[in-house]
Design a protein that fits this description.
The complex is a heterodimer. Chain A is of the alpha/beta class. Chain A is built from 10 helices and 12 strands. In chain A, strand 11 and strand 12 form a beta hairpin. The radius of gyration of chain A is 21 Å and the shape is globular. Helices cover 68% and strands 5% of the residues of chain B. The chains are: A alpha/beta, B mainly alpha. The complex binds adenosine-5'-triphosphate (ATP) and magnesium ion.
Chain lengths: 339, 533
Amino acid sequence: MSGNSTILEVKDLYQHFPIDNGGIFKKQIGAIRAVDGISFTVKKGETLGIVGESGCGKSTTVRSIAQLYKPTSGEVLFHGVDLCKADKKTLLKERRNIQMIFQDPYASLDPRMTVRTIISEPLNIYNRRGLLDHKWTKDEIEDRVEELMEKVGLNKLYKNRYPHEFSGGQRQRIGIARALALNPEIILADEPVSALDVSIQAQILNLIIDLQKEMGITFIFIAHDLGVIQHISSRVIVMYLGKIMEISTSEELYKNPKHPYTEALLSAAPVPDPKVERNRKRIVLEGDVPSPDKERHGCYFYDRCPHKMEFCSCNIPPMFKAGENHEVACWLYDKEGHN
Amino acid sequence: MKLFKKKKMVATNEFNQTVEGTSLTKEAWKRLRKNKMAVVGMVVVIIYALLAIFADALPLYPYDEAITQHQNLRPSLTRSAGELMLEQRLKNIYFQAWRNGELAVSEEDDARIREWVQESRTNAVWDLVYKYGEEARANGTFEFSRSAQRQIDRMLEDIENDIQITVNHLYAYDADGERYEVANADYQTLLNLYSTLLNVEPSLVETTLRNEVRTSVSNQVRANDETLEGEDLEAAVELEMDALGEEGYQERATQNLVGYIMQLARREAERDVSAQNSEGTITFPYKGSFELSSGMTAEIEASKMHERRYYLGTDYLGRDLLSRIIYGGQISIAIGLVGTIASFVIGILVGSLAGYLGGRVDYYLMRFVDIMYGLPYMLLVIICMAIFGRNILNLFLALALVSWLTIARMVRGQIMSLKNQEYVEAARSMGASTFHIILRHMIPNSLSVIIVYSTIRIPAFIMQESFLSFLGLGVQAPYASWGSLIGDAVSSMTLYPYKLIAPSVVMVVFLFAMNFFGDGLRDAFDPQSKNQL
Ligand SMILES: Nc1ncnc2c1ncn2[C@@H]1O[C@H](COP(=O)(O)OP(=O)(O)OP(=O)(O)O)[C@@H](O)[C@H]1O
Ligand SMILES: [Mg+2]
């Protein structure tokens, strides 16, 4: 991992989706708090994993970072430039370095475009706007497309084919090639492997790891599967209900989970060894994930926490330091002993 | 250079060829070709379209040329108009003879004819008496009365001599012997030409022309304001004439002059051609330039009027039904197309606005659409036609105005569902502009649905136009559409069923073909059948 310079910083990011009453005047009667105040930094060259149950706001986080949604409040600093407040031109220039890989390899490729058009689309958009280093010719773009296809392990002779003529894994490779086209510094990968078969998952993961080693790209990587996250990421963020519960290096997190939610999550993941699997202790959480449309004044995990204390219900825990590179949002680790 | 490089895909070795992909459209086309009914439908539609487009180039009689003697002729592939005319005349004569008891008919048939007359089964009666009459004449048991014989003789003579002449171009020669076309000549030249032809003073002709123009202006003024009378009218006409000025007058007078001279030339040509015909120095049909005895040259088409063949018969004014059906098809298909395209444009505009902008714009637009849906649709069209006048353009407009609703809804739905597609988000994350997204992603992906729907809509438009024409609100004479042809035929349905059958069959075949083609397209583009190649 090269250096410790911060490439991306998210400060107090909120993303609320308004709920209206469906009438003419669209009176807002509430909001879904998909992301409810999160802060973290991403260092150059690392892979930051984000895990959490379905609906906890992982996708919304990366979409807000990519400015697909305008965040309700907060800052997204990319090389110190706040993308949320940047004007269109700056945003375009910076966004070139932030690309996304999507979850669904079927839905994320336009069925009416050839692979060549899909991969060259970002190049063409930036080329037309004159935001590339120089005006690229058609042949240059063509060469670049072929180079990218080879890089992600696709046969370049298939460049005139359409997405529906490829398998799921191949399509995801097309998606990756498209994300690489502009040589971005950071790639936001929203569950890039969860729609794929297990054997193909491994191939794609290895491809991503190889690319990262080769090109030094920073990744933010979302996954449900804790195994995948452990395999790929150097640091992990655990999210719950739009809040960060724990941030740690992945080794530390798996060996030594601090937050009750992380413990539960880890205990729920299957272990390949049947003996260990049979004997290990499971923490079963009660109830479902609560709806994210309520404003909360206490710990977000309070309703389901096995260690809950009265104090937790009306005080939102800040991030406590629990070791080197390890922070946790739980009053249990409050060194100053407020509770 | 580049062009060639792109087109030619050179195989450096047999494993190094670029693989051509099959796009969704290509696949849909493949599937369409497998659907036999759809292909047949498509071919039929193409044939119709070609016929409609190239109607002018086909050897058809003009669709608006009415020949009085040719009224209500039956369709016939083998017999000419003259023979049919004669047969009809004979039928009438035989029927009269039967009435007067001069034509002997077996008792049984006599009763039958009486019954048919009661039931007004005219065609059956005619056919039967004709059969008897011909037999009797062959046997020598029946002779025409003197007046009947005279009628027949005159008709035979007409058939021999009547000549149909169309003057396509008319040329005259000026003082220097230079040839010019009459239709393009200026006022002074025409004035001189006309007065020479009539052998009168030009000033006299000019006075007449001025009076004519004044009369037509006066008629116009009176039509605009019926209350005007006497001096007021005079003043108003004077005002109009001043507004018209010398230039305006000459323009109108020139029009009149061209008309007169053409008429004159036609009559002259008729006379000259008849003369040559009786001398036997001309063969028909004749097409080419013809020297008139007045010294002008005319490009004419001349044919023996009663040698025409009407494969589908004629209508009540003696116009060729085949020609009317083909030209009517032109209008009917145009209405289908224009209506669809207009509703397509309005619908896409409103629908994509509502779908893409969403929120309040969407809400109001869609409520407006809902209200429009609630109004009785045909009534709206009828009111439109009644208010804005009955011409083809208004018909197009009226139909388009009320028929974009479904397309708007459909496009809105499409755009709304596409807006949240991941590939659209991907494009946005690449910094694509809204315009780029709509143009490159949304339209190509929703076009197939819209096109399919439009194909299915075309028959509906044709049906609606037919309905309006049937009510007398559609296309106005001398134009025809399938609907108006059917509408005209209904009143004489029992006497001349062919007038109803021919346009109906033509229209039904087209509608069937269009529906099969549309259905085929829909199936072909259906993503659900994507893998059933
Ligand atoms: N565009 C939107 N409008 C309204 N609510 C939304 C929108 N997008 C997401 N949400 C809500 O925000 C919450 C978080 O959604 P998000 O997609 O970020 O979850 P996630 O962690 O990515 O889940 P998954 O693992 O299933 O992908 C959910 O409750 C979802 O219903
Ligand atoms: Mg998600």
